[in-house]
Amino acid sequence: MSVFTPVSEAQLADWLRHYSVGALTLLQPIVAGIENTNYFVTTTQGAYVLTLFEKLGAKELPFYLNLMAHLARHGIPCPAPIADLADQYLGELNGKPAALVSRLPGQSVARPGRAQCGQLGALLARMHLAGRSYPGYLENPRGPKWWRETAPQVRPFLDAERSALLDAEMAFQGRHRFADLPRGPVHGDLFRDNAIFEGGRLCGVFDYYFAGIDVLLFDVAVCANDWCLADPTADRRFEPSLVSTFLAEYAAVRPFTPAEREAWPVLLRAAALRFWLSRLYDFHLPRPGELVHAHDPEHFREILSLRAAPGFAPPWLT
């Protein structure tokens, strides 16, 4: 659990006076996340999530909050930012930028099946279509520029084999540019723990704070590398039935272009590289925090090794 900036009930109760959400009845730290401080907040009027942003500043945050509001208006089940009495989504609490958003019902699924993967594919495509009319712009904050900045920082912690893998993949990705692929807002971090189901129905996608403008296929690759594995804890190969269902349901809403089909193997590797780098950074160079949870970098090192292996045959786009 990550709580970098503790918030007391008295502090939050005072802060909530700037909102029309009723009186505070419960404040509970959220057991997840490594970037921001998050709390479940219950008031006499409803249930919300409070986020204190530990890295992001007032310059970037309007992109994320306005994107969530835009998607919610277009029928995408995502948290809707709550405006304060001055009609602002972004406030400040304990010296940090802070926002309050609606809390969605449901639970995440650790081992998704075909039904869950299919629903995710359709929802991701709907999200990408809805994002086409969003006017905000922010380049993917964990895109190639960030990879180039981060790789030298984590390389000293790697053995010879892992260092060679990192160097080879950085060189490989540097030879590919995708100016001709469809672009728009991407979630960028839509793992299983960032989606929730209730009664077998996908009823929410949240944590948009790694969103940015990128090729849409990158989002598809991020999801496939997390949702469609044979065994998320032991076997990082693709489960054919899961990935085929996920891709087919996505394509039924937003068909893939010929250029996307050609780029698909490269984007699968790019998505694995992005998360291997971020997990290496969080594991070896953590920030001070009260309670900090860092994921094992080896998970995505194994995924990248599999996707980059000679003879790897990716599940093809339909």
Q: How are the elements arranged and paired?
A:
Layout: H1 9-15, E1 24-29, E2 37-43, E3 47-52, H2 61-73, E4 90-93, E5 96-102, H3 114-131, H4 144-154, H5 160-174, E6 183-186, E7 195-198, E8 201-205, E9 212-215, H6 216-227, E10 229-231, E11 235-238, H7 240-253, H8 258-284, H9 298-308
Antiparallel strand pairs: 1-2, 2-3, 3-5, 4-5, 6-9, 7-8, 10-11
Helix pairs in contact: 3-6, 3-7, 4-5, 4-8, 5-8, 6-8, 8-9
Structural account:
The protein is an alpha+beta fold and 318 residues long. It folds into two domains: 9-102, 2-Layer Sandwich (Phosphorylase Kinase, domain 1), CATH 3.30.200.20; 114-308, Aminoglycoside phosphotransferase (APH), C-terminal lobe (Aminoglycoside 3'-phosphotransferase, Chain: A, domain 2, Alpha-Beta Complex). The chain is 40% helix and 17% strand. The strands form four sheets. The chain has a five-stranded antiparallel sheet. Strands 6-9 form a two-stranded antiparallel sheet. Strands 7-8 form a two-stranded antiparallel sheet. Helix 6 (216-227) crosses helix 8. The protein is globular, with a radius of gyration of 20 Å. It starts with 8 loop residues before the first helix and ends in a 10-residue tail after the last helix.
What tags apply to this protein structure?
single chain; 318 residues; alpha+beta; Phosphorylase Kinase, domain 1; Aminoglycoside 3'-phosphotransferase, Chain: A, domain 2; 2 domains; five-stranded antiparallel β-sheet; two-stranded antiparallel sheet; 9 helices; 40% helix
